[in-house]
UniProtKB/TrEMBL annotation:
The gene is LOC113988841. This is Glycine N-acyltransferase-like protein. It comes from the Eukaryota. Its EC number is 2.3.1.-. The keyword Transmembrane helix does not apply. Residues 139-282 form the N-acetyltransferase domain. Signal peptide: none annotated. It comes from Pipra filicauda. GO terms for cellular component: mitochondrion.
Length: 282
C-alpha cells in the first residue's frame, strides 16, 4: 500500500484515470480536487506504484468513528484481487468505524460484502443511477424567470440545506454540508430578495450533489437553470459533469436526460459499513 503525495505521481494517476472513465469517475474527481488545492483534504492510496491494480480516495488524517459523511471514500480497480488485498492491508480501513465506499464497479460491492461477512460487519447499501453529460457546451442556454437571479448560498443557509436533504437532518450531516458549502463550487437560483429557491452543490469527488428546489417554486425551470450553469462551470474548471440520482427519482432522471445527460450502464452503490455506529455523539 502506498499513499501518493508527489505532484508528479498525482498528475500521472490523473491521466491514467481519465483513460478509465466513466468507471473511474468518482476517484478521478477526487484526484482532480487534490491536484487543484485539495479543498477536501483528501489522499489517494494504491496497492503499488506505478503499475497499480486498485486505488482508493479517502479523507486524510483522523476521522470520527461515528461519522460516515466525513468518512466517505471511493474506489476504482483494474484488478479485483488487488482491490481486495488493498482493503485488507493494515492501515487501509478502520473496520470498527462507520464509513462509506462509493463504487461504480460491481466488484467494489462484492469485496465489501465478503470482508464484512468475515469480520462481522453490517452493511447498508444504497443504489443510484449515474448520469454524465458528454459536452455541457452544447446544453441549451438557460433562461431565468423575471425577478429570479443567480447568486450564492451563504453559511447561514446550511440549516435550510440540512432540512431539505433526504440524507440530512442531523448534526453530522449539517457539518458535512457546511464543509461542502465552504470548500466546493455551487450554483444557487435566488429570488429578488436573495432567498434561495433552487441549488446544486458539489462534493469531494466532483459530483453534482444535493440538487433541490423548494416545493413552492417547482415546475418553473429553476433546477434546469441550476444544472446547466453547474455543468458549464464544471467543464470550465476541467471537471467532468456527472451526478448520482436515486433510482426512484424519476423527475430528476427525466430532467437530466432532457438536458443531454447520459445514464451510465450499471449501478452506483454507496456502501455504508457499520451503520449502527453512524450516529450523532453525546
Amino acid at each position: 500500500m502506498q499513499i501518493l503525495t508527489s505532484p508528479a505521481q498525482l498528475q500521472r494517476l490523473e491521466g491514467i484515470l481519465k483513460k478509465s472513465l466513466p468507471l473511474a469517475l468518482p476517484v478521478y474527481g477526487a484526484v482532480l480536487n487534490i491536484t487543484r488545492g485539495n479543498p477536501g483534504d483528501f489522499e489517494v492510496l494504491v496497492d503499488k506504484w506505478p503499475d497499480f491494480g486498485a486505488v482508493l480516495a479517502r479523507p486524510r488524517g483522523e476521522v470520527p468513528v461515528n461519522d460516515s459523511y466525513w468518512n466517505t471514500q471511493t474506489a476504482f480497480y483494474r484488478d479485483l484481487g488487488a482491490y481486495r488485498a488493498l482493503l485488507e492491508t493494515p492501515g487501509c480501513q478502520r473496520w470498527d468505524a462507520a464509513f462509506i465506499i462509493i463504487g461504480l464497479q460491481d466488484g467494489v460491492t462484492t469485496v465489501s460484502q465478503d470482508l464484512a461477512r468475515a469480520k462481522g460487519v453490517e452493511l447498508d447499501i444504497t443504489e443510484y443511477y449515474t448520469y454524465m453529460h458528454p459536452n455541457p457546451s452544447t446544453m441549451p442556454e438557460p433562461r431565468l424567470d423575471p425577478g429570479v437571479r443567480l447568486g450564492s448560498l451563504l453559511p447561514s443557509h446550511v440549516d435550510l440545506l440540512n432540512e431539505t436533504w433526504p440524507y440530512g437532518g442531523n448534526a453530522r450531516s449539517r457539518r458535512y454540508l457546511a464543509k461542502l458549502l465552504g470548500r466546493f463550487p455551487h450554483v444557487c437560483v435566488q429570488d429578488g430578495a436573495g432567498e434561495p429557491l433552487s441549488w446544486v452543490l458539489t462534493d469531494h469527488f466532483g459530483t453534482g450533489a444535493h440538487g433541490f428546489t423548494l416545493p413552492a417554486h417547482r415546475r418553473r425551470g429553476h433546477m434546469r437553470v441550476a444544472l446547466t450553469v453547474a455543468a458549464r462551470r464544471a467543464q470550465a474548471r476541467g471537471f467532468p459533469t456527472y451526478g448520482h440520482t436515486a433510482v426512484q427519482n424519476g423527475p430528476m432522471q427525466q430532467l437530466q436526460e432532457l438536458l443531454g445527460h447520459q445514464r451510465l450502464p450499471g449501478i452506483c452503490r454507496y456502501i455504508l459499513h457499520n451503520p449502527a455506529m453512524d450516529k450523532d455523539g453525546p
